[in-house]
Amino acid sequence: MRGTAGLRGFAIKSAESGWLWAQASIEGEELVLWHEQVTTPVAVRYAWAFNPLLSVENKAGLPLRPFRTDMESKE
User: Fold this and answer.
1) What is the model's pTM?
2) CA distances to 15, 50, 75 from 10, in Å
3) Is 33 exposed, middle or buried (0-12, 13-18, 19+ CB in 10 A)?
4) 8 Cβ neighbours under 8 A, 6+ residues apart
5) Phi and psi at residue 59, to the nearest 5°
6) I want to staple 7 with a disulfide (CB 3.0 to 4.6 A). Which of 2, 24, 39, 41 is the partner?
7) How far is 49 from 28, CA to CA, in rounded Å?
8) What is the DSSP string of 4-16?
9) Around Cβ 44, how many Cβ atoms within 10 Å?
10) Where are the beta strands (DSSP E) in 1-75?
11) Per-position pLDDT tens, the chain of length 75
């Protein structure tokens, strides 16, 4: 984790709503995301912005690269 503000920069999408900023924690080897309004998550994005907020790094201090799990088309 970078800094002292906790894990930030994660967005989660449910089947019923649009993108919402997610809470995040590291539990063992897993990154766990949630939002109280999302019961059925369908996609996650991390640092997906023009000026991304990077809050996760590995033991060597290298940041987690921005990623997305959705493949929305631009149509």
Assistant:
1) 0.80
2) 17, 14, 24
3) middle
4) 24, 53, 55
5) -65, -25
6) 24
7) 27
8) SS-S--EEEEESS
9) 19
10) 10-14, 19-21, 23-27, 30-34, 41-46, 67-68
11) 554 457 999 999 998 889 999 999 989 889 999 999 999 999 999 999 888 878 888 889 899 999 999 986 554
